[in-house]
Amino acid sequence: MRLDLVVLGNLLVDDVVLPDGRTRMAEPGGAALYVALGAWLWGLRVGIVAVRGDEYPVETLESLASRGIALEGVARLGRPGLRTWLLYEGVRRQIIHRLDGPTHLEMSPAPGAIPADWRDARAFHLTASSRWIRTCCCARTPSQHGRGSCPGSKPCSSARTRWS
């Protein structure tokens, strides 16, 4: 089955502190999760390419798979992944990365992580990730890939989606 959209980005765990002091610990997060769910809600066939820490909620992955979101591009890190504190104060939010965790670069998929049979997808969405900003899927420099397309006329953009 040809995918409509391949999402490349991060899957991380969030520890949330709400303005009233209540907490929601170990919540699934990461831009790849939210982009994939949004696209799925619009009826697209979606696949995720990401690295997940060992503590990423398995129930979340099972829920995505049960909805038909392809997860063959999700790799295990082999240790705890990126975890953040999300502190909400009124209308403001602050993100604090937990100490001793991997970097965003370590948690970002490499260009070769895209499953071969997904490379004919209609579009690729690159979430903000230092690996992809520095090394686009089409091996262009950041100044070249912002509005260009990958070899074979595949879309290539950072934090936006283009369709072929």
Describe the structure in your own words:
This protein has helices at about 30-40, 60-65, 130-135, 140-145; strands at about 5-10, 10-15, 25-30, 45-50, 70-75, 85-90, 90-95, 125, 150, 155, 160-164. The chain has about 160 residues and is α/β, with parallel strands linked by helices. It has one domain (about 5-164): Ribokinase (UDP-N-acetylmuramoyl-L-alanine:D-glutamate ligase).
CATH class, anyone? Alpha Beta
CATH architecture classification: 3-Layer(aba) Sandwich
> Topology as H/E string?
EEEHEHEEEEHHEEE
Average pLDDT confidence is 83
Total domains, how many? 1
- Largest beta-sheet characterization: 5 strands, mixed
Helix proportion of residues, in percent?
Answer: 10-25%
Which helices and strands, and how do they pair?
Blueprint: E1 5-10, E2 12-17, E3 23-29, H1 31-41, E4 46-52, H2 58-66, E5 70-76, E6 83-89, E7 92-97, E8 123-126, H3 130-134, H4 142-145, E9 149-150, E10 154-155, E11 161-163
Parallel strand pairs: 1-4, 1-8, 2-6, 4-5
Antiparallel strand pairs: 2-3, 6-7, 8-11, 9-10
